[in-house]
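To whoever is on call:

I kicked off a structure prediction for a single chain this morning and the downstream step that reads the tokens threw a length-mismatch warning. I double-checked the sequence; it's 457 residues and nothing unusual in it as far as I can see. Pasting both halves so you can look.
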Amino acid sequence: MKYQTQKIAMAYFMVAMALFAIQVLGGLLAGWIYVMPNTLSELLPFNTVRMLHTNSLIVWLLLGFMGATYFILPEETEQEIHSTTAAYAQLGILVLGTLGVVVTYVFNLFEGHWLLGKEGREFIEQPVWVKLGIVVAGLLFLYNVTMTGLKGKKTAISNVLLLGLWGLVLLFLFAFYNPENLALDKQYWWYIVHLWVEGTWELVMASILAFLMLKLTGVDREIVEKWLYIIVATALFSGILGTGHHYYWIGTPGYWQWIGSIFSSLEIVPFFAMMAFAFVMVWKGRRDHPNKAALLWALGCATLAFFGAGVWGFLHTLHGVNYYTHGTQITAAHGHLAFFGAYVSLNLAIFTYAFPILFNRDPYNQVLNMASFWMMAGGMTFMTFVLTFAGTVQTHLQRVQGDYFMDVQDQLAIFYWMRFGSGVIVVLGALVFIYSILVPRKEIITPSDEDATVVAE
């Protein structure tokens, strides 16, 4: 490890992986409730399980991004992180807020209270006091990484990463604006949810992926940076007005149907560019890097993001199609593969690359790590196809024929069982990944090795 403050990343990665385990187990429980609806119906109802599943996803991904930033910035700027105290204080605030959210959700505390109770807005249900804590942590983070960036060397990777992080934190401020008009509420609500995952997060993703390609392939920085600028330009061009695909049916003017359809169709471009970028860099690369698992995760991230966010997003982004498919299991299919491909795999890639360096030892358990990739990627891909078929049947029966919702759900039971089975594989893959990262391989010393040691001495 070249810079001592890179150790900050370790704390963030550890907390992120703990939440990752909780998140996938929560998803498995939610999948089980789909097939056995009365499971924990009074103790832990489905709406609470879903909140915990989605919120823990967002939090652990953000912690992964922040840890990755603390790991990458020193190498890119050739400077130590400005303040380790601020970095750990920020983590403490986020952990406290996470615990507060979990207790509030599970026990439904302070319901209806403007400050202490949860808000009924998907993904940003957090109580106001937790939102204030998130803002404080976010401002600490921006101060810390920006000061680090200003003091050190400027590179395309660090600049794009900081741009994405500034946008990420500032867009969260819309969580405090909650107008009474529901259409207006949804219009601004998407400023957070959409402009995060299809805007600022894409910049973070592109910069982290560029860093990994630079380290793993040995391609010249100039080539990597040219690709990075192209990806960023296409992501911002398509992503900002691509918000319109959420405005089709919420009461906004009809012209959003055309804006949303056109620019959303272009959102596949940056994801295709990232996939092409990753494979071209490997093809051009001259370095035989020992960490093959990290390279697999990086390539898998770019590929699955293209299919999950790009192809499956395009499948129902045109307003004529979305009219029928909106809110069906097709949306769930797109969401699962897009998040896993673009952001989950990205974090697991940087974890796989960084942990051997942070622990100051060679990459270990690589076969196990790569096995976890194929388990999770295979399980999530199968889940995506299952949910796509379920959504197609649901769309026809419910939206075309007009059958009752619960009658249609009965028809989808076989798909939900298959979804649960694929979820089991994903959870097992996640546990294998965590084991492979944290538990070092035991070295087997043979007699010949001992003899060699004696000779060497």
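Update from on-call: the warning came from a stale cache, not from the record. Cleared it. Sanity check on the structure: Confidence is low (pLDDT under 50) at residues 444-457.
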